Amino acid sequence: MNRPAATRKFGEKREAIVQAAAVLINEVGVQATTLAEVARAIGLNATSVTYYFPRKEQLVVAVYDQTLTLMENIAREALAQENPAARLRHFIAAHVTLRQRIRAGEHGLTTALSEIRTLEPEVQDPLMAHYLRIVDLVRRFFGEWSSNGQRALFSARAHILLEAMMWWPVWSMRYSVLDFARIEERLFDVLAHGLPAQRGTYAPQPLSGSWRTSDDDDASQNEAFLRAATVTINERGYRGASVNRIAESLNVTKGSFYHHHEAKDDLVLACFQHSYDRLSTVQIAGRDIGVDYWTRLTSVLAELVDLQFFDRTPLLRTTALQALDAEHKVGVVTRSNRLARRFAGMLIDGIADRSVRAIDPLVAGQVIMSTVNSAYEARHWAARFDPPEAATRTYLSVMSEGMLAPSG
């Protein structure tokens, strides 16, 4: 007779452990989260936690599975809506509501997925398969595809939408929950309909500058470290990008690494600095050409996305933020917000010269940041296009046309 009560108690305790671990992973990352810290957070001893999760990896998987299941449920609910516009609106609303619940004090609802890539393959592979199921659901928001080109377009829309929703928790902190309803509407407007005053306008101009990686391998050793670290962190996450792995990719010793950087965190910060310097340089190069502001912005975006798709040194993914301590994280987010505001400034100038329609430039600036940042993850998708420029044009059609533009 006591079995249901015991089963319920077991489930409640297990859920409390998963929620506590989710909070810690969000705050300090996977590596710094220990079973002892999780136990302390909910008033248990470590032995009690190991009764439910004998190994830390099992707990980490449970935490990520919880978030992925939540995301999948949201996607399925959205897909059940009657048309693409209703699906997009439902999906955005659900993510805004989720953030509102978290602001209200609910803990452990979601976990940033950035460190899944740091896990060992036998643990990572099932989680990545789960995420790809979510991508497929979101891709179907826009209808059934009738060609490979249409499927590629819907894949780009799904990728950009998911990344925008995963970036939203970072910049939502700048807004009161009293403004969330308005932000939800503005997010839908930007993603659904794009940015230019004349829908579909896309005529990027060539930009000149020194942000590209040279093909002659004459970079300094420090530049080579930045390149190797950026690529390794993007592919394997912070924890997976060990000093040994970075040094081995360059065929140098660990001692050589520490000659340039006192610790790996210093290298991550240097990678962010290098990436943001390059992004800023491209922004300025595009901002100052003598055309309307939508064309200036399009030129910047085309250059940045092409760099993310095809350059040997991409920009560092913002997923590396989670591994930084609070003090350094604030500085990196502040720089990111400044770059987003520069995009917003270009949009404001575009509204003034009537090349950009009346949208919320602050919201659109953040969508642009997540779109550029996440382009690296679409490299394999982009490699299928011939000519390569078609990949950039298709990807940026979300900005130039919106997700609800006809795709036939």
From TrEMBL:
One Gene Ontology term of the molecular function aspect: DNA binding
DNA-binding region: 34-53, 242-261
Keywords: DNA-binding, Transcription, Transcription regulation
InterPro entries xrefs: Homeodomain-like_sf (IPR009057), HTH_TetR (IPR001647)
UniProt-listed Pfam families: TetR_N (PF00440)
Start and end residues of each HTH tetR-type domain: 11-71, 219-279
Domain of life where this protein originates: Bacteria
Protein name in the entry: TetR family transcriptional regulator
Organism: Qipengyuania flava
